[in-house]
Amino acid sequence: MENSFILTLLLLLPIVGSLLVLLLPKENHQLTRIAGLAISVVIFIVSMFLYFSFDPANANFQFTQKIEWVKGLGIYYHVGIDGMSILLVLLTTFMTPLALLSTWSSIDVKVKEFTFFMLMLEAGMLGVFLSLDLFLFYIFWEAMLIPMYFIIGIWGGKNRIYASVKFFIYTMAGSLLMLVAIVWLANSGTTFTTDLLELYKQGPTLEPSKQNWLFLAFAISFAIKVPLFPLHTWLPDAHVEAPTAGSVILAGVLLKMGTYGLIRFNLPLFPEGVREYASVISILAVIGIIYGALVAMVQKDMKKLVAYSSVSHLGFVVLGIFGLTVESMQGAIIQMVNHGLSTGALFLLVGYIYERTHTREIADYGGIAKIVPLYATILLIVSLSSIGVPGLNGFVGEFLILVGSFKSPILGSPYYTIIAATGVIFAAVYLLWMYQRVCLETVKNEKMNLLTDLNTREMITLVPFLLFIFWIGIYPSTFLRLSEAFSSNIVSTVMGALAK
Amino acid sequence: MDFNISDISNYLPLVILASVILVSLVIEMYVKNAGKILPWLTIISFLVIAYQSLLSVGNQGVFFNGMLATGGQVNIFYFIFNFGAAIVGLLTVDYLKKTGIYHGEFYILVQSAVLGMMMIASARDLVMVFIGLEQMSLCFYILAGFARKRPFSTEAALKYFLLGSFATGFIVYGLGLLYGATHTLNITKLYEVFTFEQTNILGIIGLTLFFIGFAFKIAAVPFHMWVPDVYQGAPTTTTALMSTGGKAAAFAALILVISPAFSKERAVDILTPLIALFATLSMLYGSVTAILQTDIKRMLAYSSIAHAGYILIGLAAGNKEGVDGMIFYLAAYTFMNLGAFGIIALIEDKEEKNLSIKDYSGLGTKYPLLAGLLAVFMFALSGIPPFAGFFGKYYVFIAAIKADLVWLALVGILSSVISVYFYIRLIVVMYFSKDECKLEVVNSNSAMIGIIVSAILIVVMGILPGSVINLISKF
């Protein structure tokens, strides 16, 4: 399908929508909220159309559109979608309306600005997943920092200024390194171009030493975003200070941009770099799995616990990517979605209880299962999904990753997997222990008796999460089939290049 | 003599501006309410000249015995100067009244300064460069001290004058040596004989001195000491013009004189390290020192030093992309800086009040439009897409990498990361601080027009840089 307009429409909708939101009257918060929600729902519906007309058997980019943008510099407006990006695009369009709906009551200052930034953020994230030109990709990648920075900085918690500035500078430092690598790569061929499909041909033909350098520059930038140990220190700060919707989007989608970048750019562009650094990155990923889990275990703050669990879970994804087998790649891709669902839902739940009690300290809770049974049930399901209990979504991804990386020829050793697998046990420890201290035991805090259970709006935001948690857990083929052709294609491309 | 009256259409922009200066002098002397006429006459003539320059951009030629050239890049510079000056005019109208320093001479001096800039850009002879530079600088010396009752302004003027004359000395000395070495001051002829061989040591020293003199004018480290004091002390809209048009003109001279040298053998061994050194020092020193500032004008002064460094990357690269990138960067920088200074001028109160960064706290709540625009300018200055500042950086990085100067691009990155901190600190103050905003901004429609036009330009140049780049790289 050449020159289809649908992806451009998908990109334009949130941008136009956010500008429309700016025109609404300042005082009418309700109208702004409804408008924001309506726009994001429309975007979701458009993306559903993509899902239905996507051809999973085709490993190439679909719905592409290519327009020359800046002539002399070989920059194109080039968008397209494949088996990996369609899942992430759907994840983005799915999470945004739910995130907007979740803030209905918690955000009551500058609602208009908030909605504007959320929609801009959505445009940025979609742009990152759709771009097939490195320059275009970079624009979205960087521009997306601005709305996230404002969301943390204006609506965040006490320490929001420190967190937002740290987030901004940390990510910016990584991205700028990538920018030089992009220019260098674009200049390496006969004509200067940033068109990805063109560079896919050029990248692997470069000298190994150059590939290694470029690989590192890209990988550092993505590793910061993932975040890979030891570049994760911005994440707990940003998560804890961000408002609930910000955390949901941050964990749900933003972190996936790092792993997406590793698959989309690092693997096919610089196979020599993969050969050189796959084991180093996998070791860091395994360290991240264990370290994230251990640190999560000792957290007193629920949100911080969930934040560190992200470090651990994304370690699995990175391990899956560099396992470079079809199974581990499939697992990594589905695990990106899973982590978005489980952690997104966890952040929602922590946010909802925080709205009621204004505390996130685990020690302040206890025994609330009797007071808010619905809440406690959902928290249990989501925690189990995050742990990776069979029948729920987390299991599918982690299992595939572990199976794939166990027999991975690139890693060449089962020890990565063996150590990583203990991370699953730790996950059970920290999540169930938190659940025990929050929901079970006896009610220690008198105030907890006044808690109200989830209301309808909150249920509406959570039910879709639960639906997919079960769906992926029980019948993952719906989603795995989308990325199957893509996964086997990328693995064979990279392995083919390495075999030479 | 090849003077031909029919050529006048080529140098029409210069002629128009010179006539406007004369007319303005007469108006200022004889017309009663000159204060109402002069600003608008100035703004409109700048706009007309800017339009005319773009219109005749393809009309290239050399006139007056090879002294002046027009068309191509020259006209693009004309456009930057005049359009920028028109925005400065818009910003100034109410600013001068508010601060109580209105004198009709202000506009005439601005016009003369712009004429000087245009002469620099169109010069094809080193003497012409010098005359243009002096014309521009003299006007700036006076403009810096325009608020003559304020001690800071007077100090700024004096400092600028003393150090400026010192720098001029370097340039004249350099010209002398160049003439001694090559027996000509015509740039084209000069490079027919100029070499980077050891036998031409006199010429090389001359060229270096010339570069150092202009390093002072563009505010490159280590010749930057005047910048913070002058930028801070001068009336804000004067600073706006100095930091944009003035800087662009000095870079135009460098492009004119230094870039052709790269076609010579061994130029890369001698010129590139020298310029790259200046660029490195400027970027890092400017960015690091800006973090420490509490006064917003001083902060932008150090940011201006850092930006001089980024633009010098293009010069150090010494290739076509470098020159194109510099011109694009200068255009982008002109509009982002004008916008930022425009907002500062609008917020500034009598007696130089409201210039500290702290004064901006809570601006986002009280004046959302102003704060939003200032945020756009700050993001643009820090080089974040999709604004024009990013594309400027991208362009000079391309030039650096094509010239195998990857390390210089990496220094540029390091400096950009550092500089993000102080640019976004202003946003932190405006939006994230919970303090009550104490500012009372007196609205000025003309200034708002200028600021909004700048904002639109940097967004459009950032998202659709194609047509601008085509125009620049055509010549």
Description:
- Chain A has a domain at 277-356 and 371-437 and 456-500.
- In chain A, 74% of the residues lie in helices and 3% in strands.
- Chain A is globular and about 70 Å long.
- Chain A is mainly alpha-helical and 500 residues long.
- In chain A, strands 1-2 form a two-stranded antiparallel sheet.
- In chain A, a hairpin with a 4-residue loop joins strand 1 (62-70) and strand 2.
- By secondary structure, chain B is mostly helical.
- Chain B has helices at 12-30, 34-55, 73-99, 105-122, 126-144, 151-182, 187-193, 201-218, 226-233, 236-257, 267-291, 296-317, 320-347, 363-366, 368-381, 388-402, 406-432, 445-463, 466-473; strands at 61-63, 68-70.
- In chain B, helix 2 (34-55) runs antiparallel to helix 3 and helix 4 packs antiparallel against helix 5 (126-144).
- Classes of the chains: A mainly alpha (500), B mainly alpha (475).
- At the A-B interface, helix 5, helix 6 and helix 7 of A face helix 16, helix 17 and helix 19 of B.
Instruction: Please report the total strand number of chain B as a whole number.
Output: 2
- Total strand count of chain A, please? 2
What is the 3D shape of chain B? globular
| Number of separate helices of chain A | 20
Query: Compute the gyration radius of chain B: what is it?
Result: 21 Å
